[in-house]
Amino acid sequence: MFDLFGMVGKIRQDLYIIYGPLLLGAFIYMTLTVIVVLLFRYLDPVCPSSEADPMIANRSLIEVFAADEAELTAIRRDLHAHPEIGLEEHRTSEIVAGKLAEWGYQVHRGLARTGVVGTLKVGSGGRSIGIRADIDALPIAEATGLDYQSRNAGRMHACGHDGHTTMLLGAAKKLAERRNFDGTIHLIFQPAEENEGGAKIMMDEGLFRLFPCDAALWDGTTIRAGRPASSPSARGRSWRRSMWRASGSSAGAGTARRRTRPSIRWWRGRASSWRCRRWCRATSTRSGPAS
Q1: Closest-CA residue to 76 (of 165, 152, 158)
Q2: pLDDT at position 128
């Protein structure tokens, strides 16, 4: 006699065996996700508590940086008026090094000729992060008519590196003032981003050996040590599909070496190339720099 109830019970048992672990894993994953989101939402390890510093804690970052608006604007316009192309940024690196030293950073100069690295260590933490900005201009004649138009013939900050440099200097000042972190920050001011391969020169000369970083940040992108990454070449004309990684050892030494994973390199190159072309079309009619 056909046992319908027995068959249903067997099917139910099989489903429990097959899908039970999957459902349990999904439940655990969702629970951990909620916990992590709540931790990041309600626990901020960077911003000081209101008890420690109520004046800063209750103000937004915009208000914090507004106090330095006049100084940073003056720096940006001065850099814009005196642009220097790759590996010739002597005046720019002098200004950067002077500001970093004034704010209490240990300053290292000479990587890629005009590169500057400012280091700030707070507390006893062993982790470190690198934050990078480019400092070079382009061989373009400026005709914007601005009060702070380029005074160097055939040179112009047409790509906004004067702004990048100023933003990182503004961050440097606030980090030095507040010191509300535990670890080491390396501020990397890179020359020759446009045409001369300044980043590779700095790495070849020992950037990550001298200043090992657990992660690096530039232009809103964070790359952790050992992770692959790709980047646009000069002025967005093509995309470098080679990938570089910075890796550190337990002794604090680091090296930069090339990745050789064709499948990942090809996929990232295709995706990056599409983003680059879209960006170039959107900015092809871009006007002169704003204030």
Answers
A1: 165
A2: 95
